[in-house]
Design goal:
Strand content: under 5%
Largest sheet: none
Number of helices: 6
Helix content: over 70%
Order of helices and strands: HHHHHH
Distance between the termini: 70 Å
Low-confidence stretches: none
Shape: globular
Radius of gyration: 23 Å
Number of strands: 0
């Protein structure tokens, strides 16, 4: 048997093991929520009503049930990208464009991200406009959803493209020590984002106001 078949078997085995463990944990979580659905924990009894507690429990169970279905779908999507040859087909398409190595890498990464976004879009739509809407938690309108998506895409291009191009250039320029330079670059970027996210990025998607003085 060729070596790659052993790798395939190991890969599938780890994926199956991951799915089984996550399913067992979700089963235990759902079971615990249902067993305690009709009684508010003593620590919260004075602040949370039984109706509110049951609503939260029902939402948690519904979210777990939906999550298991989408996890199964995502499992097959991952198999499609890997064993199904999706990544290879995307790579062949990008190579056929005849662009430079740096832009080829950037195009591949962004193409993969865009395709993955649309493949997972049904999960986002269901969670936001069906599940959270059913329990009264949804504050997002279709317009806000589309606008936030476009904002996220624009930020990905403005922030992600220069970062990815820089890492690809480092990998091409410094053959032996690229990993250390790339690590330093990513570390610097992450430290910068610690400041930039709450100051510049988060306000684009959320409204913030100062906390009023209180006890």
């Amino acid at each position: 048997m060729p070596d790659y078949k052993y790798v395939t078997i190991i890969f599938i085995s780890f994926l199956m093991l991951k799915e089984i463990i996550e399913s067992l944990l979700e089963y235990r979580n759902r079971k615990n929520v249902l067993e305690n659905r009709n009684k508010v924990p003593e620590k919260f009894a004075e602040r949370v009503t039984l109706e509110e507690h049951q609503k939260a429990a029902d939402y948690t169970v519904a979210k777990i049930n939906a999550g298991q279905i989408f996890n199964l779908i995502n499992f097959f999507i991952l198999l499609g990208w890997t064993l199904g040859g999706g990544l290879n087909q995307l790579d062949m398409f990008v190579r056929s464009l005849g662009i430079s190595t740096l832009w080829m890498g950037l195009t591949f990464i962004f193409s993969f991200g865009i395709i993955s976004y649309f493949l997972h879009l049904p999960q986002s739509l269901y969670t936001t406009f069906v599940l959270e809407e059913r329990f009264g938690f949804n504050k997002t309108t279709p317009k806000i959803f589309v606008v936030d998506t476009l904002k996220a895409l624009l930020l990905s291009v403005l922030i992600g493209a220069p970062l990815i191009l820089s890492i690809l250039w480092v990998m091409d320029r410094y053959k032996d020590n690229w990993w250390f330079i790339a690590w330093a670059l990513l570390t610097t970027f992450q430290l910068l984002m610690v400041w930039a996210y709450p100051v510049l990025i988060a306000p684009l998607f959320n409204k913030f106001s100062n906390l009023e003085d209180g006890e």
